[in-house]
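Example record used in the benchmark description.
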Amino acid sequence: MTENSNCDRAALRVAIVGLGPIGRKVAQALDEGIDGLILSAVAVGDPDKHRAFLGSLRTPPDIRPIDGLVELADIVIECAPSHLVESIVAPFVSRGKTAIVLSAGALLEHDHLIEAARENGGQIMVPTGALIGLDAVTAAAEGEIKSVRMVTRKPVRGLAGAPYIVANSIDIDTITEPLKIFDGTAREAAKGFPANLNVAVALSLAGVGPDRTRLEIWADPALTRNQHRVEVDADSASFSMGIENIPSDNPKTGRITALSVISLLRKQRAALRVGT
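Model output (structure tokens):
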């Protein structure tokens, strides 16, 4: 009798919602080949806009509405506006399937999705994304974490249109030197900067929660890259970590975010997995 291998198992079918810079990069990686996975379907707001791209793939996926994906996929990847998270995630986790969520902040508003996954054997995965060190934070959380603080510095244009900016009438076009525009909790940041600070929510979910994770946001006109620095004080270790992300075509999103999703997908059927 031979041992089971990846070849003995059916490929996991993957659907993607949204074909912006992240969704396209992930779709290309799946099309080029990730062991044990296939790109089966996509959902997009304007199908005609993406037909040329999808037609360039070796195996073009089906184009379906969001509510039609669950029949065609085992895993769904959310690369969409945060207000769509519930409609994307709920059908999958309620049927014991997997949802990879990039708009982590939306999970704080829809925590019933986590309960639905628990009750039905589904799973919600939040990729590391544009942050580093989540493995260390999750390990420290098995003991006692005393404090977590994150300082984010962003190019001014990457903050344009954020609800917090609009609500507080902050004229970002007049910022000529580094300015601290926010100091609060990860939960508050998720509401005020839903397209910018999913990394802070991911950090909070890995550690002490959104109400105990503190965050500063600085707008810096001299920067061209997003910068994040995290400081953790725990009974097992005290550590700090920093990252400077190169933006994608969307200034609110770093290039490494798509690569983080691809890395997560490769682990699904990998013979060797490194890191928790």
